[in-house]
Structures are given as structure tokens and as C-alpha cells.
Amino acid sequence: MDTTRQQKINRLIQKELSEIFRKQTQQMKGVLVTVSTVRVTPDLGLAKVYLSIFPSEKGKELLENIRTNVKSIRFDLGQKVGKQLRVIPELAFYLDDSLDYLENIDRLLNKDNNEVKE
To answer: What span is annotated as the signal peptide, if there is one (predicted)?
Structure first.
């Protein structure tokens, strides 16, 4: 269970990272990076950031690119939240594939419904 402080920091980091990724992907047509969840550890030293990337075919490639540029992203985050946080947490990025999972379930259910109707 996250404390109130952790929840506030989660929301702050999610909002600011979303803005950073929006600006960075603005030049790339047809690519959308969404920060779906941020979870900060109790000592506020690590932030696990879950990204949803559209189109999902480019997900792994973009995630690797983001992981190689984690220092510059953390620096940009520090510029935005430096007044609210004393220490900027380390960032760990993960691919959030929950939307792909839901899409797959929906496709399977539709396939079953079509087979039943026939």
C-alpha cells in the first residue's frame, strides 16, 4: 500500500514524464508514448515507469531507445520537478502490455461469438 506521499509523487512524475515524452515524440509521426503507471519505492529512490507505446510493433525498439537515454530523461525530469523533490529517483522503464492483452482477449471472445453464431 502506497503512502499518500508516494501517491502524490507517482502522479507528479507521471504527469511530467508524459509531457516530456509528448514533446519528444511530436517529431515522430504516428508514434504515441503514454505513461500508464508510475510506482515509486518507499525510500523514493527508484521509480518504475510503465509505458504504453502505439503502434505496439515499435514498442521494443522505442523502449530500448528510452532505456539508453534514461540519463537525459532523468535530467529533464529534474529540471521540471526540482523544486518539489529533493532527490530525483532513478528511473526504470517497462513496457505496459495490458492493452495488447485486453485486445487479444477481445479478439478471442469475438472469434468464439462468431463460431457460436454459425
So the answer is: none
